[in-house]
Amino acid sequence: MKIILDFRKYDGVVGGVEQGALQIALNATAQDHEVKLVCKEKRFEQVRGLLGDRPGVEVIPVPVVSHAISRENAALDSGFFQELARREGADLIHFFYNWSFPERKSVPCILTVHDVIPFTFREAMGFFRNYFVYKRAIRRACRLNDRIATVSEFSRRDIAEKVGVPIEKISVVPNGLRTPDAPDPVLKAELERKFGLEQGFVLNVGGIHERKNIPRLVAAFAMLARNGQYPGRLIITGSVSGAPYQERMKKICDAAVREAGLTGRVVFTGFIADRELDSLLDMASAFVYPSHYEGFGIPILEAMRAGVPVVTSSVTAMPEVAGDAALLVNPMDTDAIASGISRALNDGPLRERLIRAGKERASSYSWKRNCSEYLDLYGRLINSCRDGGQF
Asked: What is the rounded CA–CA span in Å between residue 7 and residue 21?
C-alpha cells in the first residue's frame, strides 16, 4: 500500500498522537509499504531526524502555521492532501487530529479520534466559545471521513453517543507502548536528590487538569500520611503552567496540599522527559491514577511494564485497559482511593500479584500490534470503497 499520514500536529514534542503516527510509518515501511509523512514546513528537519534514514518514508513539508481549526488547514485537507494522493498514486490518507475536513476526496480517508473529553470537561477548551466550535468541528470531521478509528471500546461508545457517529463506522485500534530507556543510576540519584525521594514515593502522571482528580488524590494521600501508614512523598508529574486554565488548577491543587497539611510531602515536578519518567517508574512504590476520564490511559500500562503496582479508576476506559492487573477504585470516593493506595503499598501478596499481572498485561500492547491492526483496517476500507459497498 501507499499511505499518506498527516503529521501536522507535531510541533516539537512527540506526544501520544504523534507517537502513533510515527510508529505506523516505521512499522508499515518495515512491511514494504510506502509512506508519505506530511508535516509543518518549520518542523521538516526535526521530523526527518525522528525517522532517521528509514527507507520507504518520505517527509513532505507544508507551509502551515498550526494544527488548529482554520480555513487554511481545511483547504489543505481537500486540496493539497487529495492532490498529493493523486500524484503519488496513494491508496489512503490517515488524518490524526480531530478537525480534518476532506470535503473532496480522491482516496479513502480515515480519522483517528482518541477521545471527546471536551464534551464532558468543557474547561479543557479554554474559552467557552471554543467548546461550541469544537463540537461543530468534530461532528463535521467525523461525517466527512470514511472511517473513524479510536483507541478503546469506551471511546467508541462515547464518540458514537456524543458526536452522533453511527457506532458501526468506528473501529477500535488500541495504542501501543514506547520502548523505555534503560535504567540510569546517575539520573535516578539526581532525581532522588532533587525531589527528596529517600523514603520512597507514590507516583501520579499526567498533569493537573480537572479530570485528573488531583485534589481528591491529595486528600487520600493525606489520610495515609496522618495515620503514619506511609512516610514517603506523593510525586505528581506533568505541566502545571502555561494556559490560564492550568494556572487556575495549580492554585486549586496547591490549596488542597496546604489544607491537607502536606506542604513538602506533595511535589509537582512540572513537565519531565520520558527518560526521567522511566527512572521515576523504576523507583516508585506504587502508581496511582484516579482520573475521572481517560480515552485510553497509556501511563497505566507504562507503570505496569515497569513492575509498579497500579491503583486506577473504575470508570471510562481505565478498567478496559487495566483489566484485572490493577486495583480499581471509585474516583469520587476519597476513602476508596486511600484504601487502594494502602493495599498496593502494604499487602505483600497483593503487590506481587499486581506486579506479575501488570507486566503480563502491558506486554500485550505494542506498536507492532497497533500497526498490524491499522494495516488490516486500511486494506478493508480501501476494498470497501473500491467496491462501492459497506465497510
From this structure: 7
Q: Which amino acid is at 58?
A: E
Residue 116 has, within 13 A of its CA and on its CB side, a CA count of 28
**β-pairing, 201-205 with 310-313?**
unpaired
Q: What does the pLDDT look like over 13-35, one tens digit per residue?
A: 888 889 999 999 999 999 999 99
Q: For the purposes of burial, counting CB atoms within 10 Å of the CB of 86, is it exposed (0-12), middle (13-18) or buried (19 or more)?
A: exposed
Please choose, from the candidates 22, 4, 2, 25, the residue with its C-alpha nearest in 3D space to the C-alpha of residue 13: 22
Alpha helices in the chain (DSSP H): 16-30, 44-51, 71-78, 80-88, 128-144, 153-163, 185-195, 214-226, 244-259, 274-283, 298-305, 318-322, 334-346, 348-363, 367-387
Sketch the domain layout of the chain as residue ranges.
2-176+367-387, 185-363
CA geometry: angle at 364 spanning 6 and 175, to 5°?
A: 20
CATH 3.40.50.2000 fits 2-176+367-387, yes or no: yes
What's the pLDDT tens digit per position in 85-102?
A: 999 999 999 999 888 889
The better pLDDT of the pair 14, 349 is held by 349
pLDDT above 80 (res 124):
no
Closest CA to 231 of 95, 345, 109, 391: 345
**How far is Cα 246 from Cα 66, in angstroms, rounded to an integer?**
21
**SS3 of 231-269:** CCEEEEECCCCCCHHHHHHHHHHHHHHHHCCCECCEEEE
The answer to whether the CB of 305 falls within 8 A of the CB of 185 is no
Same fold, 2-176+367-387 and 185-363: yes
Q: Any idea how long the chain is? A: 391
Q: How far apart, in whole angstroms, are the C-alpha atoms of residue 349 and residue 92?
A: 50
Burial class (CB in 10 A: 0-12, 13-18, 19+), 164: exposed
User: Residue 28, SS3?
Assistant: helix
Pick the CATH number of 185-363 from 3.40.50.2000, 3.90.550.10, 3.30.70.3270, 3.40.1650.10: 3.40.50.2000
Q: What predicted TM-score, i.e. pTM, was given to this entire model?
A: 0.93
How many Å is the Cα radius of gyration of the chain?
Answer: 22
Distance of CA 286 to the CA centre of its chain: 21
